[in-house]
Structure of Putative hydrolase of the HAD superfamily:
Amino acid sequence: MKNSKIKNIIFDLGDVILNIDVPVASKSFAELSGREQAEILELFSKNALFRQFETGELDEAGFRNYVRKILDFSDLSDEAIDTAWNSLLLDLPPERVELLQNLAKNYRLFLLSNTSSIHITQVNKILEASTGIEKLEDLFETVFLSYEMGLMKPDPRIYQKVLEQAGLKAEETLFLDDNLANIEAASKLGIDTIHVQKPVTILEYLKDYAV
């Protein structure tokens, strides 16, 4: 049901706008290194690899070198690492972009994503191939990315920073995310939320907001 107070909509990226399959990345690294997928997941989790990269503690070179170190595979090329890392990124349905363009006529639109620079480069390639639009910044007033902000959802500070920087009132703002913890954290700050759960997409969730 439409909330008539809403003036601003903040979107997550993965599995909200762009389809993703997170386990594919660990599978790709397993195939690259000749290890079991479960071992890859344990190694990456134990070393907080993704968190470090997605909060900007590691830059691209640092991320790739850390992958080589963790996997004990010094000959792994930059391209091989990037390809494995990006393998979780799937497609971006054009109809979701059309919805965003429609919503932009009446709402201020923002993106808030836990992500990395390598992923964003690839997402922009997928976006252009799918729609002809060159970059995410062409769809949103501001694109808020965890690796640039030094914070990750569901840390309450990341939502507060978005509200403050964009000059938004929580009660006038709607946030869509596929992760329940992220939704709950935003709700506690007074932000209206929609928990996006496949197979339902933003086309259905936001049909009452579209023109």
In short: Residues 110 and 141 are 6 Å apart (CA to CA). The chain has a mean pLDDT of 97. The first strand starts at residue 8 and ends at 11.
